[in-house]
Amino acid sequence: MPAAAPELISPRSPRVLAARRLAKRNFRGKERLFLAEGPQAVREAAGHRTDGPPTLVELFATVEAAERYADIVALARAVGARLHLADEQVIEDISTTVTPQGLVGICRFLDTPFAEILDARPRLVAVLANVRDPGNAGTVLRCADAAGAEAVVLTDASVDLYNPKAVRASVGSLFHLPVAVGVPVEQAVAGLKAAGVRILAADGAGTADLDDELDQGTMGGPTAWVFGNEAWGLPEETRALADAVVRVPIHGKAESLNLATAAAVCLYASARAQRASGGCRSVTES
Q: Which of 16, 80, 181, 213 has the fewest Cβ atoms nearer than 10 Å?
């Protein structure tokens, strides 16, 4: 059913004030709504399909952006999102970016219960344990999506999935794969192990070398990578839960890799091994 006709609104509109509040975590949690900024995120939100109501609820756009991204506006209206035409100042008030692109969507929460992820028998999972930087969280989510992972798990000590910076850093990948939130790391590891998934903890001081793991052919089965905090990595009690603690080899003079880069290397290593001849395509085939 088409959305209502567009209406020009002011910075003092109740809808603008309600949207602006979603920049704060407590309001997001109360309303179970979050902001998606820019054409890429809004397009992905409008195209996101669930068994429930549409993910995209409302769309704020400048007149110029509505004309430039007419296809996105049409898609948003097709899924029932209400369109609000507004001036640039309104968009700047709602947006959390320095240079808004003229489109801001309001979306329903879309995290997936951890039990559903386990029921799907995933082959490749990224577990973010105590990851506090929203940009890193979103970037790792994007890497997991690109590598073909079936799910991402954010532990209860990690950053809010719907932090605007995390949403932006995911560049739309938030809408592509299941993400479970608020799962204690012990529960995440135990559940994945019970589902037949091998747990690898990524750590610069790991006793196992990623190159050796690949050479030995141990990476072809269902795998979950556990990535730790940006500053201090994984605590000993978390490393002890893993089947192996793996380091990415440093062949040059760099002191270390940042979280997102290390995650990309690890996830792609697993993806290549799983797709190689003889690699395990699923738990049931292992």
A: 80
Report the C-alpha gap between 170 and 147 in whole angstroms. Answer: 13
The mean of the pLDDT values for the chain is 91
Residue 182 and residue 154 in contact, taking contact as beta carbons nearer than 8 Å: yes
DSSP label at 252?
S
Q: Are 145 and 265 in contact (CB under 8 A)?
A: no
Write the pLDDT tens digit of every residue in 232-276.
889 999 999 999 999 999 999 888 889 999 999 999 999 999 988
What is the Cα–Cα distance from 108 to 126, expressed in whole angstroms?
A: 23
- Work out the number of other CB atoms within 10 angstroms of the CB of residue 105: 27
In the numeric block, which tokens belong to residue 27?
Answer: 């309001």
197 close to 243: Cβ distance less than 8 angstroms: no
Residue 30 contacts residue 90 (beta carbons within 8 Å): no
